[in-house]
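Backbone-to-sequence.
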């Protein structure tokens, strides 16, 4: 009641039953159908960036090139190790072949033939190891060429030419996103 004993009047509205549309905003993260982080497999300095941010790229397209001078030297060194190992195998074969008829004629003991055979096997194993090392170094050399693993759009470049990168870097070199379909990711409460 208002002062003086009078009842105060209030505006009244009749509520009618009707349909309405409610809008709610949610923060969302938009991602392409496929998003791939591009990371180097080996350590090296970025020598070339061959695409622009936001460019459309194809699977297998060259994106980055790391400095490969050290690895080229390692390949030449590994090739030389293979040649040395091949020469050692040839020498061991010659020694084995020379010892074999001498043992058959009882000029030298069978122990000398066994020794020559063991040396030959050891040199052959060293050759296999040298070839495996060469293949490993050649594979690492290929890793200086960073290719796109998928078709899509290139993301941003947090690293520039001259940056030292490796397989454990915090941010990827970039991302490649297939945006033919885009998905929105957001959270809803239970209510």
């Amino acid at each position: 009641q208002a002062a003086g004993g009078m009842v105060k009047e209030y505006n009244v509205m009749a509520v009618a039953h009707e349909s309405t549309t409610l809008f709610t905003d949610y923060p969302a993260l938009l991602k392409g159908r496929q998003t791939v982080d591009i990371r180097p497999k080996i350590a090296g300095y970025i020598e070339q960036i061959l695409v622009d941010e936001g460019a459309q790229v194809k699977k297998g397209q060259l994106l980055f090139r790391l400095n490969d001078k050290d690895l080229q030297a390692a390949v030449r060194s590994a090739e030389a190790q293979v040649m040395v190992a091949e020469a050692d195998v040839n020498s061991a074969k010659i020694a084995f072949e020379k010892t074999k008829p001498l043992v058959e004629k009882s000029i030298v003991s069978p122990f000398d033939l066994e020794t020559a055979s063991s040396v030959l096997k050891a040199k052959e194993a060293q050759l296999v190891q040298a070839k495996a090392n060469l293949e490993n170094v050649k594979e690492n050399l290929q890793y200086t060429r960073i290719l796109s693993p998928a078709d899509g759009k290139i993301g941003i470049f947090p690293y520039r030419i001259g940056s030292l990168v490796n397989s454990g870097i915090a941010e990827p070199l970039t991302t490649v996103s297939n945006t033919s379909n885009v998905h929105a990711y957001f959270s809803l409460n239970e209510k």
